[in-house]
Amino acid sequence: MQILLDRADLSTGEIEGKGGKNSREALAAFQAARGLAPGARSRKALLQAFGAGAVKPIVSYTITPEDVAGPFAATIPEDATEKSKQSGGCCLDWDQRTALRDTRHARRGHR
Fold first, then answer.
1. Omega within 30 of 0 (cis) for the link into 38
2. Best label site of 42, 81, 99, 101, fewest CB within 10 Å?
């Protein structure tokens, strides 16, 4: 759902496969923008609005040199607050690099 919302230009924040507050708010905005009633009764209409069947949810991706280019941080803190203090793209941990790649990939003409 997060990728489909992202493809509809409604950011859920980091795409991590969990339905958190940002995902719920993006879904509510998507439903409101398309005149869909919230709730399970509109699930079929929601899937149709997302383009179910017309959009491939999973596509092949080839990792590029830019995806894995350094330099990288020598150590990565466990604490999320400490992680947030790391500067620049050169110091992102694996999860953050993966999220950036996934977000970039989701937005590359796969709408």
1. no
2. 81
Domain residue ranges of the chain, discontinuous segments joined by +: 2-50, 65-107
Spatial CA neighbour of 28 closest among 16, 17, 36, 20: 36
pLDDT digits (tens, 9 = 90+) for 10-42: 877 777 777 788 888 888 888 888 888 877 677
Tell me the two tokens of residue 15. Answer: 């795409």
Tokens 């989701």, located at residue: 106
Interatomic CA distance for residues 76 and 13, integer angstroms: 22
pTM above 0.85, yes or no: no
Looking at the DSSP assignment, which residues form a beta bridge with residue 31? none
